[in-house]
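Q: Can someone sanity-check these two? First one:
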Amino acid sequence: MRMISQIFSIWLIIILLLILPATRTTLASGPSEKAPIPNVDFEVAAKRVDNHARGNAIYIFRLYCALGACSLEQLALNECEDSPSGLAFTPKLNEWATWAGNLEVKLLPTNILEVKVFQGSHKMLPALLRLTFRPELPSAKQVSKFQASGFLDFSTKEGLRGHTPVEFAALPDSIQTIRMDCPVLLRGLEKEAR
């Protein structure tokens, strides 16, 4: 009886060893498999494609991904407007993150990251970024192609009605200096009334 039990146990182990690797490869090659997001630290300066009244405004996009999680920042500079001190701009920062649920990042073939930005709650008002990059370790830092479309300009008084999506084009040179058209407006502490 003991010998039959041992033979049965050996056969069971052999069968499991033959079945489990086949199951693992079938599950891994299923449709739910996603390519892992590489570690990246990109910064690209861009301008609006349309000839908007904001003139020479500069937009800096920064995408940072590590351990499969990503964040995207968009910093607006040189959007000159009337202020109490004359023509000036206030830097504006927009942020999105995968862990906040308002950013999705997908790795496409040939080193392209597709970044979907949700500008509204509940995954509403999507904008799209496509960045072609050169892979490097420990993280990629060089972008060779940049496309950004579908962003909305919330600073206008029109609200969501009448908005046309904004497209951005990267500045042509890898490094350059640009003078701002107006000074930066900074807010400090209010003076106390005496």
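And here is the second, same format, sequence then tokens:
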Amino acid sequence: MALCPPSVVGPISPCVNSVRVQNQLIGATVAVLRNGAQVAGGLATWTDQTFDLNPGVSLNSNDKISATQSSGGTTSAPTPVPVVVQHAPAAPLNSVTFASAVLNCSNALLISGAVPGADITLTDQHGNIRGTGVASQDGSVGIAIAPQLGNGEILHAVQSACGLTQPAPTPSPLPTEPPIHLPPPIV
């Protein structure tokens, strides 16, 4: 039986240290290819999975990233339309945005607008790190906040990618109160 090629999820920047692959069979061995040579891979434990790049491997602008899957002695063709690695970001990096509601009791926030693979850091007004994450291929990341956001507390988000750092932190919107009465669940 022929195997269908898996899909590589883009965009991909030179800042990433992993590649997201979809549509592979659970239990298949996935090979992530850069210009035809394997740079990552492993056993598929799900049909949508991220594979870390091999140690010492980095991606370069214009690399073509594809993937294959192997199962039962059969290997698929590579991804028919490879994802081309974007150019490295230029200075200055754009500001990230707070994409989720910011509530006085928030214990996680969604940040968007980052370079894929960028490190995102949330700090409080005293410079304490309250949460960190790595932006996915779509430039977003959910970040857990510890301890949870206090009454009226403002956080600042900064992205760092490919040796560059966002010039000025993005302040969160002023937190609002959560709803007093939650609506009944719909079953």
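A (reply): Looked at the second one. The chain has a mean pLDDT of 93. The chain is about 0% helix and 35% strand.
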